[in-house]
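Design request, tokens follow.
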């Protein structure tokens, strides 16, 4: 009894600072770095369970030096690393760095997942809060790899919490890098993802596969030793490789890939291939932070001398710490299955078997919106991910082909679509076909979603309207009209600004070079329910 009482004792921020012998500012910093996980009172104040502070102290005392792990965590570009960029240049310290990483992961984890989104049963707040401007988005495995138009995890979290129960099955039919699936595991739901882009499938699988972080640090040492032992390499080759990479970089990436390939366990190998994929982009000539492939003039100089191993270790540190957080917080018996498949077709998921679908489809054809395949191309080539019969993955995605007829019967199922296609066709028939092709595919995906969803269950779509030929395409309205023909009813639409999500805020609505218009600054969260 006495013990229970002591366990639940809560300290406020000042008391926690005195208890740990640090300033209140340090407490805030430690919280930001994920080392402390206070609970919030309804008024938003922090409360620290005393037992978690005690455990933290005991653990940090186990180290000879340095004792306080927060001292060697640094924050750069939204991620937490053990070393700042200049430290990483000192190659000789590689093993020492990995030892420090081992110390970090041996610390206990007390993440309270609710801290990342908790609406405290305030329904007004629930309806209005969709922007999530102040929330961390790279927690757990979410920060493993960039991907275009990633979900803000809190959106998936909020929808899963409200529209499904623990142990339910949640599906994302365009799962991309797997945000919905990661959140499902953290909320004790099983999940299924469907995705056609092989790089996204790899990332989603790695993000949802728990691995003991100690095994990862051991294997990181193994990779570095192997890498250093490989002296002569036959440089990797694909068409135009030297257009995108320096000769030295090609050699170093080849050695690194060979070293990772020697890991026998598939899950661990894939974990490091995802780290490798991040490095590919950093050390290539591609422009930083863009989804389409362009060379950066800043990188095409003698001054650009990327250090492949240092970049790799830096990414591994971030991802191993993320994996530790994930492993400590998921429910052990949940499982995620990612199907490499086409969401417009039957993927073998039994009819009426899914409790909730949450998805964010592409906003339009990849030629004029986000080119997922182009973003993934260099990594996919390095990792041999593309099936031999597929040259351009973007052509396989929805709206990738335009062999459609402008009198397709789908136009009778949505008055808004019919009006939009006719208006575009008056200006440009080919463009109208491309746009129509996207909606025909999207409708097929809605039909498949309807098949797998249980009756009376919810289907949430996050989608933005865009402009083509100076006409705003109301995709949210079109989806609702098409869905009603399939057997869904619309339960509501919420709107959100796009503060964090990486999307082009301007595109070329007329498709003319240099002529842009604003688009996708807001998106809609559509709530459908299957009625028959
Ligand atoms: C908006 S992104 C999803 C991003 C995801 N919510 C995340 O957090 O990473 C849409 C995804 O749909 C995929 N996609 C497009 N057409 C597809 C199809 N026919 N079948 C399966 N996936 C498809 C794209 O490759 C892309 O990854």
């Amino acid at each position: 009894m006495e013990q229970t009482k002591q366990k639940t004792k809560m300290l406020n921020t000042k008391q926690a600072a005195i208890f740990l012998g640090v300033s209140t500012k340090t407490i805030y910093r430690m919280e930001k770095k994920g080392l402390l996980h206070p609970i919030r009172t309804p008024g938003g104040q922090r409360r620290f369970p005393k037992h978690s502070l005690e455990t933290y102290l005991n653990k940090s005392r186990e180290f000879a030096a340095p004792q306080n792990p927060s001292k060697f965590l640094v924050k750069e570009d939204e991620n937490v690393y053990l070393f700042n960029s200049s430290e990483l240049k000192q190659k000789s310290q590689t093993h020492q760095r990995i030892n420090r990483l081992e110390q970090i992961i041996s610390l206990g984890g007390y993440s309270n997942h609710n801290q990342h989104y908790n609406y405290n049963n305030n329904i007004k707040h629930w309806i209005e809060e969709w922007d999530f401007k102040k929330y961390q988005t790279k927690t757990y495995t979410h920060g493993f790899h960039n991907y275009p138009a990633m979900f803000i995890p809190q959106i998936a979290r909020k929808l899963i919490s409200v529209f499904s129960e623990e142990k339910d099955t949640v599906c994302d039919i365009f799962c991309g890098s797997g945000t919905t699936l990661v959140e499902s595991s953290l909320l004790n739901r099983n999940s299924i993802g469907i995705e056609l882009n092989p790089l996204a499938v790899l990332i989603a699988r790695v993000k949802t596969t728990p691995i003991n972080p100690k095994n990862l640090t051991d294997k990181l040492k193994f990779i570095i030793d192997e890498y250093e032992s490989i002296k002569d390499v036959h440089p990797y080759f694909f068409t135009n490789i030297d257009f995108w990479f320096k000769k030295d970089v090609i050699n170093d990436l080849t050695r690194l890939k060979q070293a990772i390939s020697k890991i026998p366990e598939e899950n661990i190998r894939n974990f490091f291939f995802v780290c490798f994929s991040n490095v590919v982009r950093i050390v290539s000539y591609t422009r930083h932070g863009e989804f389409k492939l362009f060379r950066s003039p800043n990188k095409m100089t003698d001054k650009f001398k990327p250090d492949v191993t240092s970049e790799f270790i830096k990414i591994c540190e971030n991802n191993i710490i993320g994996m530790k957080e994930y492993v400590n917080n998921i429910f052990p018996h949940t499982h995620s299955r990612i199907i490499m498949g086409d969401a417009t077709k039957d993927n073998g998921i039994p009819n009426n078997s899914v409790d909730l679908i949450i998805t964010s489809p592409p906003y339009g054809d990849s030629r004029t919106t986000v080119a997922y395949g182009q973003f993934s191309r260099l990594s996919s080539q390095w990792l041999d991910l593309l099936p031999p019969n597929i040259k351009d993955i973007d052509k396989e995605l929805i709206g990738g082909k335009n062999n459609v007829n402008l009198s397709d019967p789908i136009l009778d199922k949505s008055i808004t679509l019919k009006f939009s296609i006719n208006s575009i066709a008056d200006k440009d028939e080919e463009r109208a076909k491309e746009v129509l092709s996207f909606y025909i595919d999207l409708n097929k995906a809605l039909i498949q979603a309807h098949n797998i969803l249980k009756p009376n269950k919810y289907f949430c779509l996050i989608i933005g309207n865009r402009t083509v030929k100076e006409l705003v395409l109301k995709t949210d309205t079109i989806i609702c009209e098409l869905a009603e023909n399939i057997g869904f009813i619309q339960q509501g639409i919420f709107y959100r600004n796009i503060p964090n999500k990486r999307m082009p805020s301007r595109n070329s609505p007329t498709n003319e070079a240099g002529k842009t218009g604003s688009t996708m600054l807001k998106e809609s969260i559509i709530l459908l329910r299957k009625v028959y």
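Comment from the thread starter after seeing the answer: thanks! The two ends are 53 Å apart (CA to CA).
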